[in-house]
């Protein structure tokens, strides 16, 4: 990975980490459905304009049903769940919980595509459960029902991302990444629209909320997707996956700087334990067995 690609990787992590900051600001004012719907509709429009500027007009008709399904499980559900979770969770905790996505992806792959779970993956999953327990249970902050529900929403969002990743890999072979990104955002926008209309606030939100939604849409979704797909083309999917470790770090940093969120010992320990579990599940930590196979 050269310096330019590494800078792009850091930028991607910083942008995706900032999404939890923006959701924490916007959601209490306009609700999870409006926040999520504006995010995907604006992002889809910006990506479409970008495609037109580079003369790469998207072709969505052939897979329109699949785009609705992908938009549901890889954008509408996880975005709404994370936004709902951040009604009660701080941005730092939400960002770290979202890092469990590779763990759920491994489970979905095992149940759906019969991809085997070797001992490293099983160990990684168990360690991941321990990390979530440390993150949420070993905390100086009282844990009430709202916090428990919100943690559940965050984990369900990660599970939905797991289904979305496997579905996309099976249904969209040969589809241009830009078409895939646009189709997903617009499909999610249509699905979320009735829920968004039903919960639209009765007053204009303050300026910082509007800025947060704009940042969430343009920076954390449109531009971030362009960085993501460029990295996959330049350095491959495995190296791009390392962004999983960087996003929570930036989520904690942005939450601490801009929202003055406290960083407790359990936050750091839980994050490290979850990172360890991800390295095992994604085979980024090469441990040898007796027959030198993983």
Automatic annotation (TrEMBL):
It is found in: Endomembrane system. PANTHER family: AMINO-ACID METABOLITE EFFLUX PUMP-RELATED (PTHR32322:SF9), INNER MEMBRANE TRANSPORTER (PTHR32322). Keywords: Membrane, Transmembrane, Transmembrane helix. The keyword Transmembrane helix applies. InterPro entries: AA-Vitamin_Transporters, EamA_dom, EmrE-like. Residues 8-136, 153-282 form the EamA domain. Its main location: membrane. The chain crosses the membrane at residues 38-55, 67-85, 91-110, 122-141, 147-168, 180-197, 209-228, 240-257, 263-285. It comes from the Bacteria. Coiled coil: none annotated. It comes from Effusibacillus dendaii. Pfam families: EamA. This is EamA domain-containing protein. One of its GO terms (cellular component) is membrane. It is a multi-pass membrane protein.
């Amino acid at each position: 990975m050269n310096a330019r690609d590494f800078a792009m990787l850091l930028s991607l992590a910083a942008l995706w980490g900032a999404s939890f900051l923006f959701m924490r600001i916007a959601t209490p004012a306009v609700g999870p459905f409006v926040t999520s719907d504006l995010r995907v509709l604006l992002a889809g429009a910006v990506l479409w304009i970008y495609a037109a500027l580079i003369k790469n007009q998207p072709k969505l008709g052939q897979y329109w049903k699949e785009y609705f399904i992908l938009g549901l499980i890889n954008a509408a559900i996880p975005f709404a769940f994370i936004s709902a979770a951040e009604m009660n969770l701080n941005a730092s905790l939400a960002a770290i919980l979202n890092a469990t996505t590779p763990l759920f992806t491994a489970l979905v792959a095992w149940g759906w595509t019969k991809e085997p779970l070797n001992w490293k993956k099983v160990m990684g999953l168990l360690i991941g459960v321990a990390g979530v327990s440390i993150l949420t249970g070993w905390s100086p902050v009282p844990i009430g029902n709202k916090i428990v529900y919100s943690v559940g929403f965050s984990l369900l969002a990660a599970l939905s991302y797991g289904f979305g990743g496997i579905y996309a890999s099976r249904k969209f072979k040969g589809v241009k990444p830009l078409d895939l990104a646009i189709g997903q955002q617009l499909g999610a926008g249509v699905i979320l629209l009735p829920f968004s209309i039903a919960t639209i606030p009765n007053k204009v939100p303050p300026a910082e909320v509007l800025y947060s939604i704009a940042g969430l849409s343009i920076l954390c979704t449109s531009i971030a997707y362009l960085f993501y797909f460029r990295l996959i083309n330049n350095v491959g999917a495995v190296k791009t996956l390392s962004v999983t470790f960087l996003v929570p770090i930036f989520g904690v940093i942005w939450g601490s700087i801009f929202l003055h969120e406290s960083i407790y010992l359990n936050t750091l320990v839980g994050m490290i334990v979850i990172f360890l579990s991800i390295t095992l599940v994604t085979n980024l930590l090469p441990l040898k067995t007796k027959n030198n196979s993983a």
